[in-house]
From TrEMBL:
Subunit annotation: Homodimer.
Pfam families: RNase_T
Family matches, as Gene3D superfamilies: Ribonuclease H-like superfamily/Ribonuclease H
Gene it is expressed from: rnt
Name listed for the protein in its UniProt record: Ribonuclease T
Length: 222
């Protein structure tokens, strides 16, 4: 399969949307009030056999926006130390972090012949809500992500594996998961990307995608 065919299949597979896996670590559960502390994204692509695979990872520490709330319980849960000198040295503002994520996402959308990104997340509504709130705070006009559509790997894993917790879902899919590394945006995003790809590819290998193509009248590629 050529790169052109893989590009065409990616554009067809999700109705011209490019799935991009996103995870955020936050200072609480209120997207309007609580800070984003880490953000990570993994772009996806297709291999020559038409399997969905992780492509590139982008991960950043984020400075709490002015007036943001950060619950101590959230810091205890994630293990994030706001006073860590290394973190303070590399952390970006929300606007800077979103810019660093959105630029390669836009490039990936164009490279795969897609029109927009669709957020993939484990309990996606949580990450999507925080992302949209940050976009609004920063006054960003060109958000590459669909404003409300998303793919939730917790729901998909419940269907495929009977598991909804990320660690258990990964293990059910044969993906190693280190609990001590969890709740880092980079680690959780990369494992979620592997999980999403595993489920999409399993469906393809079982013949479900080929059947869906035939029912929609989509011509299968050689």
């Amino acid at each position: 399969m050529s790169e052109a065919i893989a590009r065409e299949l990616m554009a067809q597979r999700f109705r011209s949307f490019l799935p991009v896996v996103v995870d955020l670590e936050t200072g609480g559960f209120n997207a309007e009030r609580d800070a984003i502390l880490e953000i990570a994204a993994v772009t996806l692509t297709m291999d020559p056999e038409g399997n969905l695979i992780p492509d590139a990872t982008y991960a950043f520490h984020v400075k709490p926006f002015t007036g943001a709330n950060v619950e101590q319980s959230a810091l205890d849960f994630t293990g994030i130390r706001l006073d860590d000198p290394l973190r303070q040295q590399v952390a970006l503002t929300e606007a800077e972090a979103l810019g660093e994520i959105f630029r390669p996402v836009r490039k990936a959308i164009k490279a795969h012949g897609c029109t927009r990104a669709v957020l993939v997340g484990h309990n996606a509504a949580f990450d999507h809500g925080f992302l949209n709130a940050a976009v609004a705070r920063c006054g960003i006009k060109r958000n590459p992500f669909h404003p409300f559509s998303s793919f939730d790997t917790a729901s998909l894993a419940g269907l495929v594996y009977g598991q909804t917790v990320l660690a258990r879902s990964c293990r059910a899919a044969g993906i190693e998961f280190d609990n001590s590394s969890a709740h880092s945006a980079r680690y959780d995003t990369e494992r979620t990307a592997e999980l999403f790809c595993a489920m999409i590819n399993r469906y393809k290998d079982l013949g479900g995608w080929a059947l869906a193509q035939r029912e929609q009248g989509i011509e299968e590629q050689p």
